[in-house]
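The protein record minuted underneath.
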Amino acid sequence: MIAQALVDGIFSGAIAALGAIGVTFSLSILRFANFSHGELLGVGAYGALGVMLLAGVSSAARMLGAPLGPFSFGVLLIIGLACGIAAAVAAALLLERLVYRPLRARAADPLTLVFASFGLALLLRSVILLLFGPDPHQYSTEIQMALRLPGPVLVMPDQILVFGVTLAVLAALWLFLQRSRHGIAMRCVAENPALAGVAGIDTAATVRMTWIVSAALAALAGVLYGVTVQVRPEMGISLLLPLFTAAILGGVGSVPGAVLAAFLISLAENLAALVMPGAYKPLVPFVLLIVVLYVRPQGLFPVAGQR
């Protein structure tokens, strides 16, 4: 059972890693704790679901929904994923333009942005409830055959695909941050916004790119969560604490740290479920967050300026 919990923790940690990156971007580049970030996972997940529900009335679309090989979904979900990412990015840019940018222009206290993000999170969740109702949904009801790994460990083909997609996205993100002009600008603004502006970096464009990348990763995480678990209106708020814990545990501003911390937290949750009722599983990230803030507030893998 321990081996199964470890494997499940690794696969679920891959999803948390994508969401945690957006949180660490918010803390290091946008300079405030964005509590509406979790709801962007829901926007992406339900954006994909909406496409599948609308297309389901068409016979041609139902053909696109036929499972691909051993997986539970078809081409239709891939189309829905693209639409879900577009919906999350559009929502993030709209919130930035209408709420966050005016508040920053007034030199508002960071706490004002935090409280605003609470309200926007409630708004996004209410819109999802209004459009889709309170019941959980699944992208597919197809039955998969589990694959047996060495030992008594079973994994689903969807889980393997999710893990592979996550690794590919993380590699692409690393190249983006290290080699692209926008990625380098984001790193500079995270290090010193004032100096970055003096050096000629367009901080407004960098902030906009940060929202785009964060929302896209959140939407991808939301859809992948829906593939392996299910889509629920409260999925954003239930995942928010693990995401923030990963960003803080890994070290604010450290993308590799957030990724590694997300895997550690997910492993801790799954191992804890072996010795305590599943209802108490959400307590694990909270306990880890308190311990980290008390023992090592700079995180396990802090960036150079925070050591």
Summary: The chain is about 70% helix and 0% strand. The beta strands are 147-149, 153-155.
